[in-house]
Amino acid sequence: MKKYDIVVVGAGISGAVIAERFANDGKTVLVIEKRDHIAGNCFDYIDKNGILVSQYGAHLFHTNYEDVWEYVNRFSDWYPWEHKVLAQVDGTLVPIPVNITTVNELFGLNIQTEQEMAQWLSEQRPPDSNPTNGKEAAIAKVGPVLYEKMFRHYTKKQWDKYPEELDASVLDRIPVRVNHDDRYFSDKYQALPKGGYTQLFASILDHPNITVMLNTDYFSIRGKLKSYEKLFYTGPIDRFFSAEGDLLPKLEYRSINFVHETVDTEYFQPNSVVNYPGLEVDYTRIIEYKHFGGQKSEKTTIVKEYTVADGDPYYPVPNERNRVVYEQYRQKAERLIDVYFVGRLANYKYFNMDQAFKNALDLYEEIGVAKRSKQKAA
Ligand code: UDP
Question: How many structural domains is the chain composed of?
């Protein structure tokens, strides 16, 4: 096998950014990817109904980071897309995050102003709260009634844990609004790549210094790699150390079973994503991809998401037990020289897409800064 300066394991966000940054620096880079495609979980393609769909769930880009926004715009044009989600509650579709419309619909009220909504919420919420887990976090925002209707069972389906068994940060991802704003996110930049994510990744990786090896498990070929300067590993951190023969406890992940269906109708549901926070169905949400970018087709493709324990690891499970276990892995990782763990799985963090971009960009900068100060000192 040829010799490369940099070896990157994984062609998702973190791997692609690291590869591009070092290639741009004049380094030769080998990207090793287990799957048969680039783009990690952002991988999308045109399906048999002529619709651009994602293989691994909906990916909505949103960020307040100027540097991340500037970076992603180098590789694709983007169109503005403010994501909205509806939830099926008590037989009706209501906006989530909870806003004035949600409360009026579910409780037959006629709240008009932000003051009235703030007043209603303050009557629901416990007087003082300093949430220490997901349940307390959700109740502190919306009170126990909406918690029960919209968060408790969804969380159990998603994580196989009740909210009290998870960190407050998990439920804190969802805000509550005192106005009519029905956007899922409120970041400054909210957009989707024209032509899809796979094209964005192809463009990031399109550099003469970058070689991508698909269908290749790093652990089965690593003995064949010629010496390199640095290794960037973006897979699950516990897999890395178990391959080394380490016997630390396993980290917990959640996976998703995506069930794609064609429905012979123009539209299946009125919105791209409908959540099912109740116990009446096992799936957490249904995505109808043609809504993204206003795609046209005779039939429609829907995807039901069932969160499961086994399968590709998608979500780290943020709670105390896993934090303690991860910390042991992190300490081992820190002792390795010229091996870097980067991304959602390697850092065991529930990153949004922009945080993954940011982390990889920052890591590259930090390595450059460290190198320059070493050279200065020498
Ligand atoms: N959540 C919920 N009900 C919903 C939507 C979200 O209880 O209708 C909770 C659930 O615990 C979920 C968390 O809020 O895991 C974060 O939701 P988000 O939509 O950010 O999850 P992701 O899109 O990352 O799967």
Answer: 2
**pLDDT tens column, 271-281:** 999 999 999 99
The DSSP bridge partners found for residue 86 are: 95, 274
Nearest Cα to Cα of residue 61 among 78, 48, 75: 78
Residue 283 CA to residue 208 CA, distance in Å, equals 43
Q: Judge contact between 111 and 117, C-beta under 8 A.
A: yes
Pocket test for ligand 1, best of 171, 280, 308, 354 (most atoms within 8 A of CB): 171
361 pocket-lining for ligand 1 (C-beta < 6 Å):
no
* Ligand 1 neighbour 275 (Cβ under 6 A): yes
> Distance (Å, rounded) from C-alpha 29 to C-alpha 225?
12
Number of CB atoms found within 10 A of residue 85's CB = 19
Containing structural domain, residue 143: 100-172
Instruction: State the pTM of this model.
Output: 0.96
pLDDT digits (tens, 9 = 90+) for 299-357: 999 999 999 999 999 999 999 999 999 999 999 999 999 999 999 999 999 999 999 99
User: Within a domain: residue 300?
Assistant: no
CATH number at residue 233: 3.40.50.720
